[in-house]
Design goal:
By secondary structure, the protein is α/β, with parallel strands linked by helices. It is built from 17 helices and 22 strands. The termini are far apart. It binds NADP nicotinamide-adenine-dinucleotide phosphate and magnesium ion.
Length: 496
């Protein structure tokens, strides 16, 4: 482990934006929070306050929902599908033109290495908007042959749902905006977005591009604030037609309970504790690199993180020592330092949570097979860590840690591997490393998860559906499939 001090200087516009005043975006205009209160935004690399954003409440949410409703009934509705698509495409162009600025904002705000934000977060965001822009003109219904006497014309229409409340987490701040907004807007809905309080900056900068892209005021509204107040107000608002949420399973369950009151539609993308199976026939170099990347990418703060590693007994020691060596050798440092392979975690709270799991694991008898060392300079760092001697009832094995902590457990054969992998309440992702085609297929079919990776990990593309089995989610993101979750289907029957 090495720590370094040299870091690139942020762009002037990034500096100015971060240090400038921040506002809610309601009906196309900057707005102060009703309460006048503000939330602190912290720099995860130092623990110091970076800036402040408005602390929106139910009054702000209500104003935003009303604006979204007016835009839905009015100008957004009147555009042709092709015009709507062009606006979404232009938004993608604007994000791309400001790629470096967005990458720096997410790096500074979230703590992720700038190289990751440049290569992953921002380009994927652009791709998602472009991919969904193409669907505006491709939403179509069907015709039906009714089994009734007489002449009938029966058909279906795909219609937008209305006002969508989008609530997102902090781990991919800008990308999460695109995951929710691109399909919602492509389908003709309007949106009120509540970014995570830890990482609101890129969403607010994104808001500044909407007018130039051509969005009528009110199509997208942004209310920063806490989940307990602004988020809960959005979920409870009677004029919100659907909530789309990405975040923890516990908050997802609260939202599911809350929407029972008025049965608004809901999509939930939640946590995971994904199993990665390494078979003895795998290319072990590829498997070791892949398993390390599966857990350490984005500091383990990825919903699909390959957090539970299962290795065939005969190669267990070799694979674990390979991954441990990678963990030990990783360079931790601030996001804007080009040599940082891993930055700080997003918040003090998250750092304490992950350290708490490490303590619990050690108390329960888990042993550290390898760990890096975290800089001790006030930043929210946690060393990448590999744990062995793990039993399935331990909290480190059962609960989502959402940090750079891998547990490794041996298995005897394919059936044992599958049984151990599926012994979890989560079902977001899972995968295996093997060179045996039959094993690859058998395991892919048997794993209870919405996303399966074979000889790779974390592949995310707007063309392929993404979502969870079990307690990892309701609904799907991406692909044609996501549009089912942002449209209503209306069947029309005409007696001729
Ligand atoms: P979180 O605490 O559940 O928060 C997610 C969002 O919900 C934030 O904007 C949060 O606001 C808001 N929120 C909190 N309480 C709320 C309430 N009572 N009503 C309405 N909204 C509320 O999750 P997080 O800590 O930000 O993110 C980490 C979690 O997200 C992990 O469990 C991870 O697996 C999951 N995740 C899943 C996916 C996926 O696609 N499946 C992707 C990324 C992350 P504030 O935080 O601002 O208070
Ligand atoms: Mg939170």
């Amino acid at each position: 482990m090495t720590t370094t001090q040299s870091r690139i200087e942020p762009l002037t516009e990034v500096d100015q934006f971060v240090n400038g005043e921040h506002f809610l975006l309601i009906d196309g205009k900057k707005a102060e929070a009703n309460s006048g209160k503000r939330l602190d935004v912290f720099d995860p690399a130092t623990g110091r306050i970076l800036t402040h954003v408005p602390d929106g409440d139910a009054v702000d949410v209500d104003r935003a929902v009303q604006a979204a409703r007016r835009a839905f009934e009015g100008p957004w509705r009147r555009l042709t599908a092709s015009e709507r698509g062009r606006i979404i495409w232009r938004l993608a162009d604007l994000i791309e033109q400001n790629l470096e600025e967005f990458a720096q904002l997410d790096a500074i705000d979230n703590g992720k290495p700038l190289t990751i934000a440049r290569m992953v977060d921002v380009p994927l965001t652009v791709d998602v908007f472009r991919y969904m822009a193409g669907y505006t003109t491709k939403l179509e219904g069907s015709t039906y042959n009714l089994n009734l006497p007489g002449d009938w014309h029966s058909f279906s229409r795909k219609e937008p749902i209305g006002v969508i409340g989008a609530i997102i987490p902090w781990n991919f701040p800008l990308f999460m905006v695109s995951v929710k907004l691109a399909p919602a807007l492509a389908a003709g809905n309007t949106v009120v977005l509540k970014p995570a309080e830890q990482t609101p900056l890129s969403a607010l900068r994104f808001g500044e591009l909407l007018e130039e892209a051509g969005f009528p005021p009110g199509v997208v509204n942004i209310v920063t604030g806490s989940g307990e107040i602004a988020g809960a107000a959005l979920v409870a608002h009677p004029d919100v037609d659907k909530i789309t949420f990405t975040g923890s399973t516990s908050v997802g369950k609260q939202i599911a309970r809350a929407v029972a009151t008025d049965l608004k539609k809901v999509s939930l993308e939640m946590g995971g504790k994904s199993a990665n199976l390494v078979f003895a026939d795998a290319d072990l170099d590829v498997a070791i690199q892949g398993a390390a990347q599966a857990i350490f990418f984005n500091h383990g703060q990825a919903c699909v993180a390959g957090a539970r590693l299962f290795v065939e007994s005969s190669v267990f020691d070799e694979v674990v020592s390979g991954i441990s060596a990678i963990a030990t050798g990783m360079t931790l440092g601030p996001a804007l330092d080009p040599s940082s392979e891993m930055g700080p975690l997003v918040s003090k709270e998250q750092q304490q949570r992950v350290l708490g799991y490490l303590e619990a694991g050690s108390h329960d008898g888990a042993r550290v097979a390898g760990a890096g060392a975290a800089p001790d300079n006030g930043g929210y760092y946690v060393a990448p860590t590999v744990l062995v001697d793990v039993r399935n009832e331990m909290s480190v094995q059962r609960e989502e840690i959402f940090g750079p902590v891998l547990t490794a457990v041996p298995f005897t054969d394919v059936d044992d591997a599958i049984a151990q992998a599926n012994d979890t309440s989560y079902g977001l992702a899972a995968g295996c490393f093997t060179t045996n085609l039959s094993t690859a297929h058998k395991v892919s079919n048997a794993l209870q998860a919405g996303n399966i990776y074979v000889n790779c990990w974390g592949v995310t593309d707007p063309s392929a559906p993404f979502g969870g089995y079990k307690q990892s989610g309701w609904g799907r993101e991406f692909g044609r499939e996501v549009l089912e979750y942002y449209t209503e289907t209306k069947a029309v029957h005409m007696k001729l």
